[in-house]
Amino acid sequence: FYTDVADNEDFLPLVKTPTEAVGLKAASLPAPQPSTALQNISLKHPWTEIQNTVYNICGSKQLWGNNENVFSFDEFQEHPANLDEEQEAEVEAGCAGQFSLSCVSAFSAELLLNWIRKPRWRNSGFPGSHEELSRERNPMDKVSVLQQQILTLTEEVKSQKELVKLLHKALEAAQQEKRVSSMYLTAAEDKDRLELVRHKVRQITDLTSRLEALEQEKKELEQILTLRDSHIQELKEHVQLLMEKNHAKQEVIMALTEQMARELSDPLQEDNTVTAETLYKQQEEIEHLKDDIDAYKTQNQFLNSEIHQVTRLWTSVAENEKALLMKCACLQARNCQMESKYLTVLRKLQEAVPDLPSSHAELVKNLIQESLQWDVKEEAEEGFNLNPVSEYDEYGFMTVPDYEIEDWKLLAKIQALEIKSNKLRSQEIVEKPLRDRWNSIGELNPSAELKSLIRSGIPVEHRQRVWRWIVSRHCSRLPDHYQQLLQQSRSTEHPACRQIELDLPRTLTNNKHFSSPTSQLIPKLRRVLLAFSWHNPAIGYCQGLNRLAAVALLVLEDEESAFWCLVHIVENLMPADYYSDTLITSQVDQRVFKDFLSEKLPRLMAHFEQFQIDVSLITFNWFLVAFVDSLVSDILLRVWDAFLYEGTKVIFRYALAIFKYNEEEILRIHDSVEIYQYLRFFTRMIMDGRKLMNIAFNDLNPFPMKLLRNRRSMHREELEAELCELEQIKAAYVKQRAEQGP
């Protein structure tokens, strides 16, 4: 107890000495004003005031006692019952009179009352009184009583310290209020007093707002507490439910456990008894099964090793086969080259036949006939084929067309051999990677990569799908439109019907699907051309449309798809009036092509001008039918792939590329007749389609479409002016003849 007191001697902080006037100075001051409730307390000697206040409350017989509290209340033992109400009233009155503070006085008074009431039970029957100590003869009992007394007094001292702290806070508040009141009373002017009052009002308003905020926060906390209580109640109910379920499950488990125990306790049936003999048999079976498992493991290891060896052998065979196939392809390519060189030598000898003896000339003719009549099927029957050139390609075109001129047939055979040789040599390097890239493409979308792939050539297995996609992007198919056109062509004969019937037998005569009048594609081609003549009455039918529609039928197979492909070419790709009666736009393109030929190949164009060669006699048909019947099918379809995707600019590119491909050969010819003869079949001299494509899309750059449009516009104006002048001359001539008479 003393240790605690020593440790807490300075628990009450010192109150600063007031600086007001005292002594003679105070006597010289004017008479004091009537005292207020705040001035009843002397703040100079706070301890004395507190003691006097307590003394007045208690009736003061003894202020200090031995081993007692700082404030002794033993006098209350004599009349504890009669003085309760009077003491409480007096304390309340005293506290209310002396501590009239804003927020602390009521609480301090109540705590003081509780503190006054607290010692009564101690005085009435305190366990450590002298009477009890005298009664206890045993020293141990006395020690226990004293320890209990010490604990009680320790708790009482703690409560008294709390009270003193509260009184100290009340005293500080009273001093602060006194200072403010003194400032108010000593203020010289009403203005200063008014400012003090306003300051107090602002403080009161601030405290009021804080009080309201605290009340609002209290309400919110009460609501949150209510919600949490309800949530806790729900959780309790849920826990109760789970406990009930758990209890039920435990009961079920106990019941099942009891049932199982009863079953195990029952004597075993005869069927479930296992004799020693049965156990011995089962043991033997287990041993046999283990032996079988070991045998299967050994066999599995052996089979795995065999499979591994077979796999190695198969891999080696596959690699050897691949190497042999590549070697065979190289041999076939070399064979094609040798045969083409052999045919070239025969062609040169054929040119020199008039100068050879008759026996030699006859030998050369026989060799040429034998080379042209070499049947591939005979070699295939022998099981050894070094000639990979078949009679027809994938779309039914003859690899060696049946020309009437023997020299042309020889050139066609040489070209077919060279093309096949180039394809075999580029199979692993170019064709296979290109096919793999096409196989990796799923949905088609316009892009630079797709454009590059289309320019390189679409593989046969992907060409139909890509062409359908290109046509559908530019032509919106009308439902049943094609069938309606066919119905119209059946009911009414179109004026172009007779011309269509005349052109059908002359369409792609080097293709087996159109070579005979009974071919299956002939009726389809007829229906497509008739439907287009009704679809576009401004054009109706023009010679050349039959070849365009025939190529579309060969690739797309469906006649309605071929019809829309023809619509896309005529109405979207080609300029207007390209297939009109006057073919004015076709003539304009020939003049534009001559301009490009002068710019891209100036030496060749100067050579043509020197010998007065008009290239439009050769190229007009190229532009009108997009190289059909001019290029071999392998190169033709690559041109069409890019033509359908990019437009007529591709025709200009390939036309210039064909002349550049054979430029040196043409420059060696110095006779106009020979030049014309060479230009009739010089497209058959193109052996390498990849080289031609590289010339068209790389060597001839730049080739802007804007330049092509400007040239077309310029030459169209010139041509229309020339035609108008020609019409005027014709009209004047007719008029002059009419005036002269018969």
TrEMBL record:
Say which domain of life the source belongs to.
Answer: Eukaryota
Q: Which residues form the Rab-GAP TBC domain?
A: 457-647
Q: Which residues form a coiled coil?
A: 143-252, 279-306
**Molecular function (GO) terms listed?**
GTPase activator activity; small GTPase binding
Q: Please tell me whether the keyword DNA damage is annotated for this protein.
A: no
Question: A Pfam family matched by this chain, by name?
Answer: RabGAP-TBC
**GO (cellular component) term, any one:** cytoplasmic vesicle
| InterPro entries according to UniProt | Rab-GAP-TBC_dom, Rab-GAP_TBC_sf, Rab_GAP_TBC_domain
The record ties this protein, via Gene3D superfamilies, to: putative rabgap domain of human tbc1 domain family member 14 like domains, Ypt/Rab-GAP domain of gyp1p, domain 3
Q: Which UniProt keywords apply?
A: Coiled coil, GTPase activation
The keyword Coiled coil is assigned to this record: yes
Q: Which PANTHER family match?
A: RAB GTPASE-ACTIVATING PROTEIN 1-LIKE, TBC1 DOMAIN FAMILY MEMBER 2B
The protein, known as: TBD2A protein
Q: Lineage of this protein's species? A: Eukaryota, Metazoa, Chordata, Craniata, Vertebrata
